[in-house]
Amino acid sequence: MTLPSNNSTSPVFEFFLICFRSFQSWQHWLSLPLSLLFRLAMGANTTLLTTICMETSLHQPLYYLLNLLSLLDIVLCLTVIPKVLAIFWFDLRSISFPACFLQMFIMNNFLTMESCTFIIMAYDCYVSICKPLQYSSIITDQFVARAAIFVVVRNGLLTMPIPILSSRFRYCAGHIIKNCICTNVSVSKLSCDYINLNQRYQFVTCWTLLGSDLILIVLLFFFILKTVLSIKAEGAMAKALSTCGSHFILILFFSTVLLVLVITNLARKTIPLDVPILLNILHHLIPPALNPIVYGVRTKEIKQGIQNLLRRL
User: Fold this and answer.
1) 209 SS3 class
2) pTM of the model
3) pLDDT tens, position by position, 292-305
């Protein structure tokens, strides 16, 4: 496919995504593990969603939170990975103007929604360990519903201006995006307007949301650890690990991949440009693929629910 010149001054109706410009020859090989991870993520999350919906014994606040997390993971995967694979397999590099900014919004919004969901899950763990007698009165279906509304509204309102500001720019510097996905930084570079306000808003908003979420999660786990260490009863530590171990592993996956992505972006001048692009793609694949597996393996009720579901098929 012949790409258009990147110095056109005509109105932009579509963009062209260039994935791994320096390594075009091995894109087909890279697509194999990516497609396998994508199938794993979609299959595992769909199974978890179906199991929780069909098993009445799993109609509890914690499992509703897992449903929310799986739904976010599915949407993130479907927003990013099929387009990347279409570029690798069929050289379908074009993406329409509206689709590009829709993808940008979903990535920014759902990433912060996922981070916020981990806070609620950490709080669930905190109540179950530190206030076990009050758990059933605090963590209720109404609490989960209000928390889900808060997650959607907070992150939707704060991340909405990012694609709106970007879509209003004049793109007179061409329409070839040096990325596999429509990130705000990659797209806004093509504008001939003043983009600093847009980029500063994204930086401050996203990292304030993600940073405050991480601080709250660390504080909650600190109080959990403090409570567990103060309990002298035998087996208290093992019970706490059994209750909160899955929460901690999921948060660790999410935070570690995100931290690596941040470090590579900060060190962009010393590493190839393709490295942060690949890590950004993997961040939309690895946590979604591993999250339902961790809960499926570590949670007896979910394992039993999956077995019951398989018997019905």
Assistant:
1) helix
2) 0.89
3) 888 877 788 888 88
CA atoms in the 13 A half-sphere facing the CB of 180: 30
Q: What letter would DSSP give residue 132?
A: G
Count the neighbouring beta carbons within 10 Å of the beta carbon of residue 157. 10
**The pLDDT of residue 143:** 95
What SS3 class is residue 137?
Answer: helix
Identify any residues that bridge with 14 across adjacent strands, giving them in sequence order: 96
Question: How many CB atoms sit inside 10 A of residue 21's CB?
Answer: 12
Q: Which two tokens stand for residue 156?
A: 């939707």
How many residues would you count in the chain? 313
* Structural domains of the chain in order of their starting residue, each with its CATH number: 42-81+97-169+195-307 (1.20.1070.10)
d(CA 145, CA 230): 33
Rounded CA-CA distance 247/253 in Å is 10
Q: Is 102 helix (H, G, I), strand (E, B) or coil?
A: helix
Q: Kind and range of the H or E element at 176?
A: strand 176-177
Full DSSP string of 40-76: HHHHHHHHHHHHHHH-GGG-SHHHHHHHHHHHHHHHH
- Which residues make beta-bridge pairs with 96? 14
Q: Where are the beta strands (DSSP E) in 107-165?
A: none
In a 13 Å sphere around the CA of 301, the CA atoms on its Cβ side amount to: 13
Query: How many CB atoms neighbour CB 294 within 10 A?
Result: 19
**What is the bridge-based pairing of β-strands 14-17 and 176-177?**
parallel
Secondary structure of 212-266 in HEC code, one letter for each residue = HHHHHHHHHHHHHHHHHHHCCCCCHHHHHHHHHHHHHHHHHHHHHHHHHHHHHHH
Mean pLDDT calculated for residue range 63-78? 94
Rounded to whole angstroms, the Cα distance separating 143 from 145 reads 5
The 3 state secondary structure assigned to 15-50 is: EEECCCHHHHHHHHHHHHHHHHHHHHHHHHHHHHHH
